[in-house]
Amino acid sequence: MPATQSTIQREPAVRARAMPADTNPAGDIFGGWLMSQMDMAGEITARQRTGKRVVTVAVNAMTFHKPVHVGDVVSCYTTIERVGRTSVTVKIEAVAMRQDSGKHVPVTEGVFTYVALGEDGCPTEIGASV
Fold it and tell me: How far is the C-alpha of 101 from the C-alpha of 88, rounded, in Å?
């Protein structure tokens, strides 16, 4: 999955620098840290689309392509794949900008589903495009 110029020219939903505290025993960044960044990016996109509070209900797919290294800047790019009655499915692509070279490397991609919640905390209809 090459980092396309159109991907890195878009505005990321989330951008974060990978820090030493986020590493596993092998010295790479924990997959859970990266999933958390991706989940935040998807939540931002789903909330913007619905105009409502959303919660993650599923990680439908997750593929780790390359490791993230300490110092890399990870950008998460989102695309809405599907809008249902109460849910939004978001594709999230994580691209690392390598600290040493500045090269953009696709590291992970996933598909997350979020459900919109009403004031009562129960699923609520999304409605027309916001």
Answer: 36
CATH for 5-117 (3.40.50.10140, 3.10.129.10, 3.40.30.10, 3.50.30.10): 3.10.129.10
Residues 6+ apart with CB under 8 A from 120: none
Beta partners for 74? 16, 96
Q: What angle do CA 31, 109, 98 make, to 5 degrees?
A: 70
Rg (CA), the chain: 15
Quote the pTM value.
Answer: 0.90
For 100-124, write each residue's pLDDT tens digit: 999 999 999 999 999 999 999 999 9
